[in-house]
Each structure stands twice: as C-alpha cells, then as structure tokens.
C-alpha cells in the first residue's frame, strides 16, 4: 500500500506504562504502537535455536501455503500438523529440505487450546517453558483476560484483512511486521464475508471488482521486535511478516461478559446481539426475494435508508 495523502499513520508512544495507557491511549479507541514496554527476556532469548530447544515437540496445527498471500476465498492454503520444534525450523528457513508441497512454501501458526473445539489458547498452559520468558502487560484486570495466542510465520507471509471482537495487544517478540488497519467505519468499503475482507491485494486492489475499496482509509505501521500494537476491537487488520517472526497476542473482554458468545474458543465470534441482528437481516433479505424486482429494489432502498437514519453513529471517530 503506497504512502498516499489519504493514508494514516498509527501513532507511536514511547515508554508506555499502565497509567499512560489507561489515561491517554486506551480511551481514544484507535490503534497505537507502544514502544519500550517491558515484555521480559523473550526479546533477546527467542532465537530459532532456543525456540527449537525449549518449545518442545507438541503437535501444532498450522497453515501451509504455496505463496506468501494466504487466500481464504480460493483456499490456497492447507491445514497440516507438525511438532512445534519442526514447525519453527521450517518457518524460519526460506527453502525447505522437508516440505508438504514445495520447497518455498510458507507457514503460519495461530496457536489453539488443548481441545481446539472447547479450550482457549493460552501459551502459559500450552507452552509453559516459553511462557516464563514473557511478561504480559498488566493494563487490564486479570478477570478480563481471554486468551494468549502464538502467531508465528515465515518471512513474507500475509494474513488477510479481518476484524476480531475483543480488544487486543499484539506483542511482537521477534521479526518485523507491516500492519495495515482500517477503521470499523470502513466496514461498508471492505467487501466483507463474515469477519474477512475479500480484498486480498491491498497494494494493487482490483477496483473494477471492489470500487468501494478506494473509499477506505488505510492506517499503517511497522512493528519492530519488542513493540506492542494496541488493536481495539473491530479495527480491521492485515498483517505481513517482513521476517520470520514470533508474536503473542492477548485478547481481553472489555465489555460486560453477557455480550459475548460463550461458545467461542477463538474469541472472534460476533457479539450475541450482533449475530442475532445479522440472522434477522438474512431473513428479511430472503423475504424481499418474494417480491417483483422493482419492489425488491424499492424496499431494499427503504431498508438502507432506515439503517442510515437510525443506527449509523455520526459522532464516532
Ligand atoms: O500478527 C499476526 O500474525 C496476526 C495478528 C492478529 O490477527 C491478531 O492479533 O488478532
Ligand atoms: Fe486478528
């Protein structure tokens, strides 16, 4: 993505402590890069060799992709399982001796809970030998903690634009990462399928297919090892690993627990009322299908107009 006039920069804050975070950064509810927070010895310790030695050989489920850009629409990646130490070795090398499909395939790990269908990812449970090396910032109450997730990827690997429903601190331990973000208010310009944007190539978007995308305003930052990205809930993010990199992200529940779907080990299901509203909308759209085309179009416009007048908040940043 070029640095054109309309691109925004994610603000950078140095030497952030809890007081500064809670008084200056968090209330704005826009992304911020936090530099100089003590995240523990992991920044120096976590070389590939160290991760290989200490991370153990527990099986991890990974994305394997023949190209750097993962494509959820054409599903150009496959899920495979490897021991953690073997995965780290492969993700850190450019050309593989052992591979599934090709010697330059890319790897991406998003760690899961013990039983991925019910358990929540927490590196303190799944990787206790490594968890001692990292200090989680104590910016929120322990009761709000939801999960801590390993994000480990090959150089160049790109994760599609998506949103999550919880507040998030993305702690970049090693490697650099380029992140492009969009405000939740750009939801109407991103051609969403569920939580993901169909616009995969942000550098060269297909504007014939995605004309509205030109209205979206990207905010960019490059995370250095040791940086933390504060990612408020609902902000879209697209992530490119510039190097082999290890990150851990911490999701926490900033809203009342009653808003969240409890059957959600990944922590990315829409809030309960959001899910229900979307289901009702699907039913309403099916009902419009019963009408002749000019009526369908007319009532569709009335619905758009009603939504614009009643729920869209003109005050939000
Ligand atoms: O850093 C990454 O690889 C992806 C991060 C992400 O999607 C998240 O923390 O929610
Ligand atoms: Fe995410």
From TrEMBL:
Which top-level group of life is the source organism from?
Eukaryota
SMART domains for this protein: JmjC (SM00558)
Q: Where is the JmjC domain?
A: 116-269
Q: Name one Pfam family in it.
A: Cupin_8
GO MF terms listed in the record are:
metal ion binding; tRNA binding; tRNA(Phe) (7-(3-amino-3-carboxypropyl)wyosine37-C2)-hydroxylase activity
InterPro entries tied to this protein = Cupin_8, JmjC_dom
Q: Which reaction does it catalyse?
A: 7-[(3S)-3-amino-3-carboxypropyl]wyosine(37) in tRNA(Phe) + 2-oxoglutarate + O2 = 7-(2-hydroxy-3-amino-3-carboxypropyl)wyosine(37) in tRNA(Phe) + succinate + CO2
Tell me the GO BP annotations in alphabetical order. Answer: wybutosine biosynthetic process
Functionally, this protein is described as follows:
tRNA hydroxylase that acts as a component of the wybutosine biosynthesis pathway. Wybutosine is a hyper modified guanosine with a tricyclic base found at the 3'-position adjacent to the anticodon of eukaryotic phenylalanine tRNA. Catalyzes the hydroxylation of 7-(a-amino-a-carboxypropyl)wyosine (yW-72) into undermodified hydroxywybutosine (OHyW*). OHyW* being further transformed into hydroxywybutosine (OHyW) by LCMT2/TYW4. OHyW is a derivative of wybutosine found in higher eukaryotes.
Q: What's the subunit arrangement here?
A: Homodimer.
Instruction: Family membership, please give it.
Output: Belongs to the TYW5 family.
The protein's name in its UniProt record: tRNA wybutosine-synthesizing protein 5
Organism (species): Branchiostoma floridae (Florida lancelet)
Q: What is the lineage of its organism?
A: Eukaryota, Metazoa, Chordata, Cephalochordata, Leptocardii
